[in-house]
Specification:
The chain is an alpha+beta fold. It is 33% helix and 22% strand. It is globular and about 70 Å long. It is an enzyme of class 1 (oxidoreductase).
């Protein structure tokens, strides 16, 4: 059984298909249809809802895409939808702001925008335009345009986040912690199909061994597409989002170790301390809704050639810590990917953590090339870790995504850079060597020739950024 709060209602669910999405549950089971389906792939934000979770003595409000969020992941959380915001018939302040500033036209996308604004309202009393754009980047509007919606968001600055949820926050916190104290683990079943929620590594390993064909799910931002787009019906899903060992971040004098189930949003502050360009790139990985669910371990284990974090981890020479029936093992990330969506992860095994060595002597450059600035998949993702000594390249790792069947390092280009000055002239041989490292394919995102040219130009961009005395941005990010 799983338990969660639907607004202030205590809900128990046991007999549900493991691949039931929160959107399907809302619209068909409880018949709360304010939440809309626009894409069923986590791209448009029409289905945005807010989850409140008891964390460090308070409630944390986060937006998620209900179309790709699995019902079982709600265990121990509070689910809030657009129907729950009004108080005694009066609109919530974010709803009233949208009305007053004409932020809605056809209205189909409005519930999703409202919920994104609600989460911003709860988390940030003085939002800047950058805060607003970050909060709304995962919500698409096809008719009104974004100016009145942004105006509505900015109009809420300084008005305080007090509302009906503030009044009940203490009691809600106690109810959620009480659920997890009484039922730390959970499950739902439907016939021979099941969704399992272990709470520690031993339970997770035992369940993976018991169900060797099970799919391990964390944020489900990718796996759910096989359900909503390809109509697959997995028999067993095992959720890692309650396994405490996988949700830790450890900082030491020499390394940063990130648990496999840590979300992108949760790890961003740690990355800002040590790898600013990595943290900045994460702001363009999917949308805020996706970053609130997706995990570093999931992105690595998925082994997509266009995943955004593996190229950076390759450049940073990360180590993958794995647990399986064989025991605990470590793999250098440059040997972990063995083929298209294939890795060295043993059968019935799982990633425990990703460990990144701190490298103060190296400069890290990270670039994501995509058709849209936000909420888009990379055509090319590149990360360069470069150390100079006496003006010459002394150590270098060049990680790329979108250039081969796996995320990969450009070994020939790396060798061509060693001993060279990091200048326009000094990188010429390395740019040429990239054609020996990669033969990228043509697809809907880019041609192979474009990808190769972009990869070569990104090396030049790193040089120009290094030699940019005014620190002026070398990319256009302001479109509105």
């Amino acid at each position: 059984m799983i338990r969660f709060l639907l607004n202030d209602q205590d809900v128990n669910e046991e007999n549900c298909a493991p691949d039931t999405t929160v959107l399907e549950y809302l619209r068909t089971k409880v018949e709360q249809r304010g939440t809309k389906e626009g894409c069923a792939s986590g791209d448009c934000g029409a289905c945005t809802v807010v989850l409140a979770e008891a964390t460090n003595g308070q409630l944390r409000y986060q937006t998620v895409n209900s179309c790709i969020t699995l019902l079982g992941s709600l265990h121990g959380k509070q689910l809030l939808t657009v129907e729950h915001l009004k108080e005694q018939g009066a609109l919530h302040p974010v709803q009233q702001a949208m009305v007053d500033l004409h932020g809605s036209q056809c209205g189909f996308c409005t519930p999703g925008f409202i919920m994104s604004l609600f989460a911003l309202y709860k988390n940030c009393d003085q939002p800047t335009r950058a805060d607003v754009e970050n909060a709304l980047a995962g919500n698409l509007c096809r008719c009104t345009g974004y100016r009145p919606i942004i105006d509505a968001a900015l109009s809420l600055a300084g008005k305080g986040a007090s509302d009906i949820f503030t009044k009940s926050e203490a009691s809600t916190y106690l109810r959620l912690t009480g659920i997890l104290k009484q039922h730390p683990s959970g499950f739902i079943e439907h016939g021979a199909r099941r969704f399992l929620i272990p709470t520690n590594g031993d339970e997770l390993l035992a369940q993976l061994q018991r169900f060797p064909d099970a799919k391990l799910v964390a944020g489900s931002t990718d796996l759910s597409l096989s359900i909503t787009q390809q109509l697959q019906q997995p028999e067993t899903l095992i959720y890692s989002g309650r396994v405490q060992e996988l949700m830790q971040i450890e900082e030491s004098a020499s390394t940063l170790k990130i648990g496999a189930a840590v979300t992108y949003s949760a790890m961003q502050s740690s990355l800002h301390k040590y790898f600013i360009s990595f943290a900045d790139m994460l702001e363009r990985l999917g949308s805020l809704q996706v970053r609130n669910q997706g995990t570093l371990g999931g992105n690595v284990a998925n082994a997509s050639p266009i995943g955004d974090t593996p190229p950076v981890l390759l450049a940073l020479d990360a180590t993958i810590h794995v647990r399986s029936p064989n025991g605990r093992e470590t793999f250098p990330i440059n040997t972990f990917f063995t083929g298209y969506r294939q890795t060295k992860l043993p059968a019935s095994g799982f990633i425990e953590s990703i460990e990144i060595p701190l490298q103060p002597e190296c400069q890290l450059y990270v670039y994501k090339i995509s058709k849209r600035l936000d909420d888009d998949i990379s055509a090319v993702c590149a990360a360069f870790s470069i150390a100079l000594k006496d003006g010459k390249v002394n150590d270098v790792r060049l990680g790329f995504g979108g250039m081969a069947a796996t995320p990969a390092r450009a070994l020939n280009a790396e060798q061509a850079l060693i001993g060279q000055s990091f200048t326009e002239q000094g990188i010429l041989a390395a740019q040429k060597a990239l054609a020996e490292d990669f033969s990228p394919i043509d697809d809907v995102r880019a041609s192979g020739a474009y990808r190769l040219k972009v990869a070569q130009n990104l090396l030049l961009r790193a040089v120009l950024e290094q030699d940019n005395p005014t620190q002026e941005a070398l990319e256009v990010v302001q479109y509105a």
